[in-house]
């Protein structure tokens, strides 16, 4: 492969995002961008640090312990759980994310894990999710294409699952949170970007790539959707400390803060 588009250009550094870009650079970097340092992020492949030339590649691996933390919290909310439906397709990101999930669910001996992937149509998935038993929850990893070949954007895919499921849907990805998932222990993409940017600046300022090890523990945060907490009877007091809650209605005080303070001042 020759770099027609960028053949006459050189780059000080490349930042790649997600597994597809990472895999592409593993295969074609020497042909397209020889000697250009690479900082990767959004990569689910836990073997990434062992696959790269450490003198050229560094970055941050996504999803370190978020799966287990998310499931542990979901099981506290729903102690009756005996089954977990995992939504994970077989694109490169889906394959790596499912491998990561498999690694982290080995200790749950009394829970059955069932994968819904792109061997099923979205219609079949929705039908199955609408009939889940009370001892079941859903874990959404990634789903961009079904068995019919139809592609789904994030809003389309997540919304199709959450609107059909009669049981709570959890996730480890912040971009899914607005589409009616309950929540989970998440690695916000903005934090991945911040880490990658800081690494890139170190390299651009002269630090050698081989002296910057791959970050394998991603920064995470418990985040939840208030509307879904309400739907499934989960109290705010039951959330982990320092959890972030979106769609939380403002209190009467917050909505009328100025008026209340004015009245207090007048009475005083």
Keyword list:
single chain; 268 residues; alpha/beta; four-stranded parallel beta sheet
How is the main sheet built? Answer: 4 strands, parallel
Large-scale geometry: globular
What is the number of helical segments per DSSP (H or I, 4+ residues)? 10
Give the termini separation. Answer: 78 Å
**Gyration radius, rounded:** 22 Å
Compute the average pLDDT. 88
Strand content: 15-25%
**Beta-strand segment tally:** 10
How many discrete domains? 2
Question: Which range best describes the helical content: under 10%, 10-25%, 25-40%, 40-55%, 55-70% or over 70%?
Answer: 25-40%
What does this structure look like?
With about 270 residues, the chain is α/β, with parallel strands linked by helices. It has 2 domains: about 15-60 and about 190-220, no CATH class; about 65-185 and about 220-245, Response regulator (Rossmann fold, 3-Layer(aba) Sandwich). The protein has 10 helices and 10 strands. The protein has helices spanning about 20-30, 50, 65-75, 90-105, 120-130, 155-165, 190-205, 225-230, 250-255, 255-265; strands spanning about 15, 40-45, 55-60, 85-90, 110-115, 135-140, 170, 185, 220-225, 245. α2 links the parallel β2 (about 40-45) and β3 (about 55-60). α5 (about 120-130) packs parallel to α6 (about 155-165). The radius of gyration is 22 Å and the shape is globular.
